[in-house]
Amino acid sequence: MEKEIIVIIGGPGTGKTTIIDGLLSKGYCCYPEISREITLEAKKQGIEQLFLEKPLLFSELLLEGRKKQYKSAIAEPHPVVFIDRGIPDILAYMHYIGDSYPAFFDEACREHKYSKIFILPPWEEIYESDEARYENFEQAKLIYNHLTETYQKYGYDLIEVPRGTVDERIEFIFKHL
Q1: Within 13 Å and on the Cβ side, how many CA atoms surround 140?
Q2: What is the pLDDT of residue 1?
Q3: For residue 113, which of 131, 138, 87, 89 has the smallest C-alpha distance?
Q4: What is the DSSP code (8-state) at residue 97?
């Protein structure tokens, strides 16, 4: 059986992590979002919000981490691996803030291909800010648009996951695998 690397994307506060946690509880192989780890490590070094203060450095660290996740997913014995955000997310966020990036970011998107992309639309009723999620809901909608454009640029057909309970959303994902 061919390896399926499934990415779940969406703007901040759309339920990605909750779905990943639900998939984990059902015994599926899942890789978490790694941007919080990078942000926490930067805070230990005295940088309050690395993405805002040094977006290119943050993005380079994120790119390396997501490339490692991809390689690990390929090596997994599981036939299906779910990942919370993919490499093109990095470019979408750079577009969102209006920053440029070196060509190796684009190359990474072209070299690391995912099987399917599920996108979660903005959902104001579940949206919450926290210490790592500084965007407001209007900004989250703009990020969603950048994610859509960026993934489509790399040839992905996005499957939009409708709003619902975690189990309903997971069931929708399974029906489209």
Answers
A1: 22
A2: 52
A3: 87
A4: H
Buried b (16+ CB within 10 A) or exposed e, 40-78: eebeeeebeebbeeebeebbbbbbebbeebbeebeeeee
Positive or negative, the Cα torsion across 117, 24, 62, 12? positive
Q: How far apart, in whole angstroms, are the C-alpha atoms of residue 94 and residue 112? A: 18
Are the CB atoms for 6 and 116 separated by under 8 Å?
yes
Question: Which ranges of 45-175 would DSSP assign to H, the alpha helix?
Answer: 50-53, 55-75, 87-97, 103-111, 137-153, 166-175
pTM as predicted: 0.92
114 Rama sector, left if φ>0, alpha if ψ -120 to 50, beta otherwise = beta
E strand or H helix at 16: helix 16-25
CB 158 within 8 A of CB 29: no
Q: Cα-flanking dihedrals φ and ψ of residue 111, to 5°?
A: -85, -25
pLDDT in tens, 83-138: 999 999 999 999 999 989 999 999 999 999 999 999 999 887 876 766 555 677 78
